[in-house]
Every structure is written in C-alpha cells, then in structure tokens.
Amino acid sequence: MNGDLDEGIKRLAWAREHMEVLAKIREDIKSSGALEGKRIAMALHVEAKTGILALTLKEAGADVRLASCNPLSTDNDVSLALNEHFGLETHAKYGESREEYYNNLNSVLDIKPDIIIDDGTDMISMVHTDRTELLDNIIGANEETTTGIVRLQAMVRESALKFPVMDVNNAKMKHFFDNRYGTGQSTFDGIFTATNLLIAGKNVVIGGYGWCGRGIAFKARGLGARVTVTEIDAVKATEALLDGFDVKPMLEAVRDADFIISATGCKDIVTDEHLQVIKDRCLLANSGHFDNEISKEALARHSTGKKVVRRFVEEFQLKNGKKVYLLGDGRLINLVAGQGHPAEIMDMSFAVQAMCAKYLALNHDNLENRVYTVPKELDEQIARLRLSTLGITIDKLSPDQEKYINSWHEGT
Amino acid sequence: MNGDLDEGIKRLAWAREHMEVLAKIREDIKSSGALEGKRIAMALHVEAKTGILALTLKEAGADVRLASCNPLSTDNDVSLALNEHFGLETHAKYGESREEYYNNLNSVLDIKPDIIIDDGTDMISMVHTDRTELLDNIIGANEETTTGIVRLQAMVRESALKFPVMDVNNAKMKHFFDNRYGTGQSTFDGIFTATNLLIAGKNVVIGGYGWCGRGIAFKARGLGARVTVTEIDAVKATEALLDGFDVKPMLEAVRDADFIISATGCKDIVTDEHLQVIKDRCLLANSGHFDNEISKEALARHSTGKKVVRRFVEEFQLKNGKKVYLLGDGRLINLVAGQGHPAEIMDMSFAVQAMCAKYLALNHDNLENRVYTVPKELDEQIARLRLSTLGITIDKLSPDQEKYINSWHEGT
Amino acid sequence: MNGDLDEGIKRLAWAREHMEVLAKIREDIKSSGALEGKRIAMALHVEAKTGILALTLKEAGADVRLASCNPLSTDNDVSLALNEHFGLETHAKYGESREEYYNNLNSVLDIKPDIIIDDGTDMISMVHTDRTELLDNIIGANEETTTGIVRLQAMVRESALKFPVMDVNNAKMKHFFDNRYGTGQSTFDGIFTATNLLIAGKNVVIGGYGWCGRGIAFKARGLGARVTVTEIDAVKATEALLDGFDVKPMLEAVRDADFIISATGCKDIVTDEHLQVIKDRCLLANSGHFDNEISKEALARHSTGKKVVRRFVEEFQLKNGKKVYLLGDGRLINLVAGQGHPAEIMDMSFAVQAMCAKYLALNHDNLENRVYTVPKELDEQIARLRLSTLGITIDKLSPDQEKYINSWHEGT
Amino acid sequence: MNGDLDEGIKRLAWAREHMEVLAKIREDIKSSGALEGKRIAMALHVEAKTGILALTLKEAGADVRLASCNPLSTDNDVSLALNEHFGLETHAKYGESREEYYNNLNSVLDIKPDIIIDDGTDMISMVHTDRTELLDNIIGANEETTTGIVRLQAMVRESALKFPVMDVNNAKMKHFFDNRYGTGQSTFDGIFTATNLLIAGKNVVIGGYGWCGRGIAFKARGLGARVTVTEIDAVKATEALLDGFDVKPMLEAVRDADFIISATGCKDIVTDEHLQVIKDRCLLANSGHFDNEISKEALARHSTGKKVVRRFVEEFQLKNGKKVYLLGDGRLINLVAGQGHPAEIMDMSFAVQAMCAKYLALNHDNLENRVYTVPKELDEQIARLRLSTLGITIDKLSPDQEKYINSWHEGT
Question: In which element (H, E) is residue D327 found?
Fold first, then answer.
C-alpha cells in the first residue's frame, strides 16, 4: 500500500498528544484487566484518532484488528503506520472498491471477535447475514452513529439482533460533542479544502436539524453564511426558526442555494425533483453517514455529462443547462476532503467507545439482545475527566443545597 | 385594587392577537366538550398572556379562578380587566404580602377544583397539606416549571402525591422555547428596564446551563457580553465550554462579574462566601423561580446598610466597603421589571397547558398518582400548529424514505 | 410639570455612578478654567445621562440651560429634578406640542449662549434664521448626530454657517459606540417595552447599514432574528451581505417583514409603495433622528382608521384590509419607549461633548465657520480614560517596534 | 519545477469560474485599450486567483511577468500551468531560498515594467535600491497590503518614493472584504489543515484588531472559541471589548492561550518575554504579511530543541520544560497551510488591482510621487458589479429624498 510511514507515525503521535481523556481511561481499563485477551474487531474511519483508540485498546490488553467503515475515509499514511510501525493489523486503504471494502471487513472478522466496534453497522450486519458462524463468540458490540442505531432498532423490531449493542452515539459525551461540534467544524475543513470558496454571504442550506445539522448550521452562520434549514420534524423546525435560521421545504430551498449540506441519516435528500429547480452552480456536500443523501442516481439521470474540475469536486452538466458540483463523491465531506473530527472531539467519543467495551466485557452476562443506552455514570466520568485535563473546576452542591433540591416543602 | 382598566383590556387584546396557536386549540377543546363545566384553579404569573390562557379555558367551557404564583409578578391592569371586564375571578395584585399571597391561593382553591394549573407547585403543595379536603375532587394537575417538577418528584419519592400531574415543563414545545428563548429575551427586558446599563463588553456570569441558563447565555453574548457559566454538572459544563463560554466555579467567577444572573432552580447560588470576594458594583439578578438563588439572608448578613437607588434596584453596602445591587428584590427579573415572556412563547407554553388540561379530563381514569411526561403527539400537534400559523411548510418523508429509515439491510 | 422628583434624583445619581469618564473630564476642565463663566445652550434628549452632562459642565464653571431636541424624548422626572433639586434651568417636558418645543428652544437661547450643544441641528438652525441677533456672541457649537451633520454640511455648501461646529458624531469614541452599541441595545429596550413580542425567529428588516443600522442588525441577530438589510450604498450592501444578512430593496423586504426598523437619516424609508405590499401585522419602528423615516403621511393616506392598541403602539387599518403597527409615533423608539442609550455609552459620547466644548473655548479664534472633525488626540484620550476606568491595560509599542513600523527597509 | 500541470489548469479554471467581477472588468479594460502593450511586473502570492489576475491583464492587452511575494506561498501546480499552458512567464516555486526569492523578483523586473503590482513592497523597494535603472520607465505601482503601505508611507516621509503608488489596500472593496472576511476564513482553512484540532472552547488570542484581526476574531468566535484581543490602540481596544472580546496585554493573554494568531503588521508580537510565561502546548500562527510577528529568533533563544511533528507544525521544546508549536514556519498560515483567500474575495481585491492599473495608465501624467487613495468611484463601480453578479438589487434615493438629504431647512 502507498503511504508515507513517517507522516503516519507523526500524525498518530499528534493525535495521541491531544487525546488525554483516552490516555487516562487506558490506565483504568488496563488495571481492571477487563479487556485482557479480548479479541476486538473494529470498523471505523481509519485515520489518526481511530488509530489511537485501537492502540489504546491494544495497550489495555486486547487483541485488535481494524478495517475502514467507508471506502473513501482511510488515511493511508496512518493505515501503514498502524500495520508496520505499531503491529496492529489494519485492513484499509483509501479508495477501496466495494469488493475490497467487504473483503477487509471479512479479514477483520476473521479474528473471531468477542467484541465488535462498528460505525454504520455494516460489520454488525455482516455477522447477522454472511458470517453467522461468528455470532456465538460475540458478547456484544458498540455502534458509533445515528445511522447505525436506526438500522439496529429496525433489527430489534424484527427480533433479529443476536447480541447486546451499546448505543455509543446516544451517550451525551458523544452526540452532544462529536455530532455537533465535531461535524460542525470538520464539515467546513472539508469544504474549504475541496472548494477554496467563500462561506460568508452564501446561502447555505442544511438538510436536517439533528445534532449534526445544528452543529453545521451554527458554524455556517459563524462563518458568515445565511442559513436555511430543512426538516421533517415540526418541533425541530420550530427550534431552527427560533435559533434564527430560515426554514423551508427542500424543494423551495434549493432555488437559492449556493451550498447544500445534508446531514439527515436518510436518503434522497436532494433528488430528481430538486435538481430540476436547483440554483445554477450549487455545491452539494454530504455530512451524513452514507453517500445516498445527495442522490447520485438522480444526478446521473439529470445530467448530460460530468467531469472532475478539481480534486474532490465533480461538475455535473444538468439537462436544463445548469451546472452543479458534487463534493467528495457525496461521501462524508469531513473525512473525504478534510481530516475528520478534531482530535479533542474524538478523544471524548472514543473514551465512550473504550468505556463501553470495558462495560460489555464486565456486564455482558446481564445484558439482553437489544440496544443499550450508555450508563449515565460513564458520561459523567468522561465529562469530569475532560474538564480535569483542561484544568477546569466546577461547583458542587452543598449538603444544604442537595437537601433543598430533594425536598418539596419550601416554597414562595 | 389600583390599576388601569382600559390599559389592561388593551394588553389582553394585544396578547390574544399574538397567541394564535391557543386560539386554534380553544376551538378544538370547545368542540370536544372535554372541559365543559370543569372547575379549574390556576396559580400562574397574572399578566396578559396568562389572562388569555384563563379566558381560553373559560371560553372552552370551564369554570376558572386565577391567583398569582409569585407576590411580585402580577400586572394589576390585567388583574383588574379580568375581574371587571371579563368576569373571570382573579385574586392577585402586585406586591402581595406573604399572607395575601396564601389567602389568594386559598380563595382560588375555594372553587373546589377538578384540575389545578400550577407554577412552582405552591398550590399543589397546599392541597397536600392545609387543604386536603379538596383532594378527593381533583382529577389531576399541570405543573409549568422545572422548579415545581423537582418538588413533585420529591413528593413522588415519598409517595406523597395524591393525583396525576402533567409535567408541562418537560414538553418540548414548552422547555425548548419558554425556558430558552422566552427566559433569554425577557431576562434582558427586565434588566434593561431596571438598569439602563450596557450589556456589551460586560462580564456576565450565568448561574446554571440548563435550558433557561443557556437561553440567557446566548442572548447575553448576542448583546455583546463576555459570558461565564457556572455549573454543577460536568456534561453541561463541557457543553457550555464548547459553545464558547468561560466555565468557572462561582467563587472565582464573581471576582470579575459585572452582572450575575442565576437560573438554576437551586438556592444559595450567590451566598456568603461569594459576597466576600465579589466585584465592586456587581449587579445581581435572578431568573429562577424562587427568590432564594441570590441569598437575601446572606446579603443582609454582609451589609452595613441598603437603599433603593432606582426602581427595581436596591444597593447593599457590604462590610468590605464594596457595593452590590440586587435587581427586582431577587425575584424573577423578567416578570418583576420586565413584561414576562413574549406573547408568542407563552402561546406555545399555554397551548401545552390547555392540551394537558384536556388530556387530564379525558384520561384521568387511566392515570396513576405520579408525574407524567406530555405525550409526544401533543408536542407535535402544537409544533405543526405553530408552523402553520406562521405559514411555514416543511418536508415529509416519502414512502420510500420511510421504508429506508425502518430497514437495516441497505449499507455502504 | 408632573414628575416624580425623588425618582428623578435617583435616576441622575445612578447615571452619574456609571459615567466615570465624564467624571474625570470634569476635573480636567474645571482645573483648566476653560468653561468658567461660559454660557452654554443645550438641546439634547432630556433624560438622566444628558442631565449629568449638563451638571458636569455646570460644575466645571459654565452657566447652562437645557431644552429637549425632541418632543417625545423627555424624562419628566429628570427634568423636574434638574430644575428643582439641582437648579439647572431646564425647559422640557414629555409630549411637547410643536409650539412648546420651539418655545423651549427659544427660552434656552435666551441665555445668550457662547456655545451651543445641539442634537439634530434645530437649535443651530434657529440662530441662523429667527434668532440671528445671537450669532455675534456664539463662538461655536457641537453637533451630536449624523442627521445634524448632514444638515450642517448643506449649510456649509451654501456658505450659510456663521460659526465653527465640532462634528461630535464623527469622533470615533462617539459613533463607533453610541451609534452602534448604544442604538443597537436601546432600540430593543424600546421595542421590548412597547410590544412584549418575540424577536427570535422574526423577519427583522433594517433600513440602512450605517453605524446605527449595523448596530441594530447585529443585536437583532443576537436576539435570534432573521435579518434583512436595505441600503442605497453598494459597498455597505456588500458588507451587510458578507456579515451574513440578507440584502434586498425595501419594496421586496416589506413583503415578509415582521418588524421594520429604520435608521437611515433620510425620509420616506417606508412610504406609499411599501404599504401597498407590506406583510399583515408588520411592526414599524424608527431609530433615526426624525420621525419621517416611516412616513406618517403615507400611513394616513393608506389607512381607513387607526387606534392606540397599547401604550406606544398605534394600529393602522390599511385600505387593503391589512393592519400595521406604528411604534412610538414613529419617533426614536429607544427614547420614546425605552430609556435611551445605556449610561456607559453616553459617558463616552458626552465625554466627547465636554471635551469639544473645552476645545471650542480654547481654540475658537483659530477656527473657521465650518464643520470640524474632532481632533484624534481627544478620541485617544477618552479611549484611554475608558479603559482605565475599567481597569484594562493594553500593549505599547517598544522603541524597536516603533522604529520598525516607521521604516521601509526590512522585508521578506 | 515539480507540479501537477493538469491540477494547476483545473485550479485556474475553478478560480476563473468564481471571479466574475474581474471578468467584467477585463472586457472594460480591453475595450478601453488602456493597458495595450503595457509591461507589468507582478509580485503576488502565486496561486490560482493571482493567476487569473495575471491572465486577465494579459488578455486585456498587457505584457505580464509574475513572481511570488513570499517564499512559501506559491502553488507549484498553478505556477507550472501559467508557464506551460498559458505562456505567462512566472518565476515562483514553493519553498524558495532567500536567494531564489530575490532572483525571481529580479527576473520579473527584467521585463522593464511600466507598472508594478506589489504585495508587501519588496519589489517596489528593489527598484528604489538595486534596480534604480528601471525607475525612469515606471509610471506607477499598486500595493496590495497594509504592511506595504506602512513601508511606502515611510518612503514618502523621506521623499524617497519615485513614482505614484495606488493604495489598493485602502480601497473599501479591498480591505473591508479581503482583510476581514478573506483573512478570517482562510486563516482557519490553514489552521484546520495544519492541526486537525478543535477551535470550539479554546482560548484564542488575536494579536491586533485591525481589519484582519477583527475578521479572525469574529470567525474564531463563530467557530466556538473564547477570544482575547491584544491591541496598542485604545480606541480599537474599546471596540474589541464592546464586540464582546476579552482585551488584555499579550504578556497576560499568553498565559491561558491555546492558540495565538498574530495579524498586526508589526514585529515581535510574541517574543522573549511572552515565551517565558506562555501556556504549555500553545499553538502559534501568523496571518500578518511578514514572518516576524511570532519571533523565530526568540523561539530559537528560548528552546533546547525543535522538531517537525506534523506537516506545517514545528514543536519547540522551551527551556522551562514547556512546548509550543509554530505553524507554517510563522509565515502567512492561510497561504502556507491553506489555499489563501476564497476566490470571491480575491475577485474583489483583484478587481481593484486591475482598475488601478488602468487608472495609472490613463492618469499617471497627473499624479505625484506619493501614495494615492483609490478613487471612490472605482470602489462603487466594483461594489455594483459584485452585487449585480449575485443578482442582488438595492434601493436608490428618490429625487425627493436626494433633495431632503441635501437640505438643512426641514427639522422636527
């Protein structure tokens, strides 16, 4: 595999330097012995921060293999460094074909995992379909994304899920931060790199006002954009409005859109009907997990031709004479054209991952085959570690305040 | 009672004009007959928007009496207009003594209510202590505030609660909007009126980063302040930090504070230890429910004297030679010195109240004596009404998208 | 005159407490003797901060009389306190008729001023038309507003101006702060009081993107509004756009406007053509100097009736069946319904006024009959006083840096 | 020279696509014939947008040569494409030595220019020192930066300047936009790429609150940072404060700084005294023209060692045991690690450049050897073109309003 080994090693060291919560948790897990000898199959975006999670689990005693959860999100330098410098078996390269992608997942599964750490639930899905021979050995899994949880809940409804899954995404220390501030910043890291265009003064349309969408919306405004939000949920739409954003149906929003950034977890957010009325030279980006939010099939149907006009930018000539630009092949723009979430964000998300792996190892006997919310205590522990690594202290309730909060007798 | 009848009538008309969701719900409840002949005892801040809720319930068929839930939050003009012009029995005046306050609650309870609508849980507390003869007739209650819910949950823990209570505060259409945008704006309405001082460039310390606290924090920043947040919850503290605010313990924050605004639902947020090191001429305001967040006892203990220096502003001369200013007697600054939440905000909150009253009337037989979350459907119905009165449409899932969201088979 | 003497005294004391720059300048002028025995005629908004300027000049040795520069901007309590408690002759009451307004200006001019301090240039205009007998004695004047300077420059073009005028408005320490942060905050003080309506989520249209307009625009956004700017200047329009605001012609902007706030210094910003297409129930406010920005003539022409629906709010029933609301009679909303600029802002603006009065007294022999920019040194002195009263220190150039900045030899 | 020709061509095409104002101006200049046969020596950052300016001037009839104004800001792909595909003589490569840098400037000067277009004034400086034989032929120059203008004004004070220079930087359409929004966004493009670290929640210290500094400060806040500004000018410091930023001397600010970004135009903003107390692991970036704002000499003096820890990031081990990171060798971070200003920003800046070149060609006979402000009409023309390419229309004064604005008779 191509890659710059030295650069990969450096990038891992830089990430480690800025992932201090995970460092503290590694010591905790190691001394607990909870993951000693456990085999862990991981499918995540293979870049420096993920590398540190994998190495952390390894250093805490586990046997770890790593594949990518997305064909375009691997940092080859890091993949090389993990394999060659750190001896951590990694099956991932940038630009995998569909076949290579699934081969890599299979190679990682060959470790016969006790625990799966997944992002998007492709790997979990595989052990429920093609690799069912592995099910017996699996004590549980972690899932990183909203998208994956939606799929898992569908499995639960059909009684298809065969082991407990920790909903890492639902941990406050994950989705409050990773989805909101991580996606918010890194989406623009990707867009800056891909386009070198100005955000200030542009009409930026955000598909979805979930945690990711609102993170992107706030950062877009912080960069000077005029922001329009599309939603299917009336409560979230009202929130977006009172947060100062325009709210419109996508079919109306696309008419004035300079940028459309989708972050819904659903498909066909921009599709045939929108392309017919979209603003000329609109830029289309996706920050959702799968590359079906901006429909590439619809783009193909409505175009007379296409060409790469810049790295990460593909121009589609529409039949109506307009042009639109698809960024990063419609895949996660923050990972394809940017460097993914900032290290400090992944420090918190992966702290949840590591703590949940430990939790599964210690508690799997008492868990059912369903999706579990991360225990509140883990969230609080990680939050306290985060503040302490920053040197920030906060208030504590006095005994008197504690008593007051728990009483109903005092009044006006 | 003193008051300007004509001004009260006008203010009610103005509120009604801007409470369009409630208008639609009135028609719905009326035609359902659910509240026909029901006796409702209300204890809320008696100002124009509350008046419209009371009148709405009356117009929908109920028999309604109204008291104030706070001695300093009554708008006398509105109280007069409700009594004299609209014939709605209202027991409330601005500046009630403690005795008058409880007398008024008792007078309202004399209606022998089927339903209680409360704000802070003083009235609910009374029927569990002094007016237990009323318990038999009560089918349930609504509670408006975080503070009240905290008290009610303490009652539930002690098995003291004798009827079901709808946690109105927990409805998304209430706390997302009322606590955040309502408190955010109206706190500054009150502070502007009380002080005529500049917010831009000031160090504003916000006690608490719950929905109220973050609403105030964002508006303070929007007005140009440098904002510091104090918290006891590490997760919320981390959120405040990543939202761009300083996070400190109160004991440190007070040293540089130009304004301290408390919104925690707990007592003694600013107390003895803080007054010893507080910045000279700091302004102290409260946006929490009770007037014990800024400790008036501590102020008395640490002062050599005090005087009213302006309407709503009391100066305390501290023993260390500094001065501090208490705004609005430490009571809800947005209601004491301002006009309370904007009409459109209360339109949503009171839509929840009205819907919950209807819900109690229709479903009380199936409810236990505990605190109930507002059904999701009510939230969504109100949100859709809100958007529709604004002429805003949003997207809908296509059948194909609906299927996709509910399936786990599609992947990368 | 009606008014609450005690409240007026308190309000003046409160303002004095928060105008620390002016306090330091008073000592400076007093010890210089520059204004000893000088007669000063002032026409400003008569409220507490203005009172402190007048008292400051008096305490520095001048003989001062004060009138209002606007029929609706007088605080009667303050006017009473100035006259009765402080013995400073003040001719101003709230709600003056046109005749009373001009009578008051004349009474103040009867002092036979050496110096005029004006706001809007009505008083300066009078001594050039009806009271020309006073011209000989006048050594110069200060003008506070953009509007006034526009009028004075017209006079200069016609060689009509008979004494030097200091363009106080153009001082950085005035227009950077007073127009931007002062108008920004106090406009919403006025609107909150007048309407008790929500800003978040509303379409707020700002007429003009000068210093006042941009101050209002930023605060509107800070309060959660969606903001549209109208302009006649293409450069400013481009700035507004890149600051993240929508930019449209007024005729288009009014169609979706929930609020229109005008701050242009020109007339007929909202006039006949706009009223024909304006959004139903739009609220119209003015933050510009004169009450002709929202055309009251046009409102009269297009209405079938009107009524006061709330203090400071007049409803006009338009011929097309819609309603619009005019706030504060179309006069400066921040002074009519609010309390004017915050004390700390006026501290800086009036520091410029006081310094310019001293400057005129010392330098009038060398000045021509034209409009003068405030000397840069005065600005810097006031800025340094401002920072020092706040306890803020800033950096200084080292000798080496000073040399570097002044050299052209060093390069890449 | 190494470089990817195809990528360079694409990047130029992409820039051209987004520089629509310049396209319109090209037609205007071409048809005027003003630059027909003129020889133009350019020293600018050689990347795609600059390439389009050079090609625009060439297409308008001029003979153009191009060098880089900074050793680390050349995009080799673009340099290659200009030379090989477009036949525009370009002397620039990434990572020039000091000798190569000056050799390239000399090679460009060998064209015997009529007009110089400079950025930082190194080339203008050379023709006044080493290449004085060229002076006779030069009719004038444009200078792009604040830094360059500071140097030129020093030359004027010493009567050293031998031809007129257009102060392009001072054009509103340049510094309002390029310095503020351009530097604001592109600084973070560079920092994202260099560090992959989080901005939200970080203490970001901005050196200088000029147009660049405030652009960076607003974007930093927009990305969630807590921002502190350092200044030497008391007026600007007061503005920063009222814009909601902390204001401190650098010596105090560095103690808590996670990032320091300098944008002053002066040297030694971070130097010996600051390194002694700086926060451990602080990241140091420069957005000012020269690489002496963060003193590399001071870093060398205070360090025991250094190493490259990541592309664009050099770690210095300080003698006190702390580490700091210098980004992009202390050179313009937006150009070294990012892609420079967005295309739409440079469209406006380079429109000023092109218009000024035309202006010099047509008016040089009437110009003196000093620094000229860009005529207001050019600014307005460019602003109108900018709005028109965006399809935005704005208001015009009616004849009646025009008359009103120019009259002083109407009043209250």
Answer: strand D323-327
pLDDT of residue C72: 84
Characterise A281 by phi-psi region: left (phi > 0), alpha (psi -120 to 50), beta (else): left
| A310–D11 C-beta distance less than 8 A | yes
Which among A160, A176, A232 is the nearest to B397, CB-wise? A232
Q: Specify burial of residue B396 (Cβ count, 10 A radius: 0-12, 13-18, 19+).
A: exposed
Nearest-angstrom CA–CA distance, D375 and C104 = 46
In the block, residue with structure tokens 């305390």 = B316
The backbone torsions φ and ψ at residue B401, rounded to the nearest 5 degrees and listed phi first, read: -65, -40
pLDDT for B412: 47
Are residues C224 and A243, on separate chains, in Cβ contact within 8 Å?
yes
- pLDDT tens-digit series, residues C220-233: 999 999 999 999 99
Contact A170, A148 (CB under 8 A): no
Six token digits for residue B203: 């160090």
User: Which residues does C contribute to its contact with A (CB < 8 Å)?
Assistant: 198, 200-201, 221, 224-226, 241-246
Helices (H), B198-321: 211-222, 234-242, 250-253, 272-275, 296-302
pLDDT at residue number D269 = 97
- A147, pLDDT greater than 90: no
Beta-carbon contacts of A391 under 8 Å, excluding residues fewer than 6 positions away, are none
Give D-chain residues touching A343 at CB under 8 angstroms.
196-198
Say yes or no: ipTM exceeds 0.90.
yes
Residue type for D144, please? Answer: E
**A11, A189, A198: best mutation site toward chain D, by most D Cβ within 10 Å?**
A198
pLDDT in tens, A221-239: 999 999 999 999 999 999 9
Q: Which residues contact residue C158 at a Cβ distance below 8 angstroms, ignoring those fewer than 6 apart?
A: none
Residue A2 confidence (pLDDT) above 90: no
Instruction: Give the pLDDT confidence of D277-335 residue by residue, as tens digits.
Output: 999 999 999 999 889 999 999 999 999 999 999 999 999 999 999 999 999 999 999 99
Which of D203, D241, D248 should one mutate to test binding to chain B, selecting the residue with the greatest count of B CBs within 10 A? D241
**Inter-chain residue contact B235 with A266, CB threshold 8 Å:** no
User: What is the spatial distance between Cα C408 and Cα A360, in angstroms, rounded to a whole number?
Assistant: 67
Find all residues with CB under 8 Å of A374, minimum gap 6, and list them: A166, A167, A168, A170, A171, A174, A352, A355, A356, A359
What's the mean pLDDT in B227-251?
97
Q: Chain A residues with CB inside 8 Å of B162's CB?
A: none
Which of A196, A202, A223 would best serve as a mutation to test chain D binding (most D beta carbons within 10 A)? A196
CB nearest to D200's CB, from B224, B225, B244: B244
Full DSSP string of C58-79: HHTT-EEEEEESSTT---HHHH
CB atoms within 10 A of CB B356: 26
Counted residue by residue, chain A has a size of 412
Strands (E), B224-322: 226-230, 246-247, 259-262, 282-286, 303-310, 313-318
Answer whether B345 sits within 8 Å of C185, measured CB to CB.
no
Q: How confident is the model at residue A312 (pLDDT cuts 50, 70, 90)?
A: very high
Q: Searching chain A, which residue's CA lies closest to the CA of residue C225?
A: A244
Angstrom distances, CA of residue A249 to CA of A262, A274, B157, B380, C244? 13, 10, 46, 18, 21
**Cβ pair B412:A155 closer than 8 A:** no
Chains with ≥3 Cβ pairs under 8 A against B?
A, C, D
CB-nearest partner of C408 from D151, D406, D409: D151
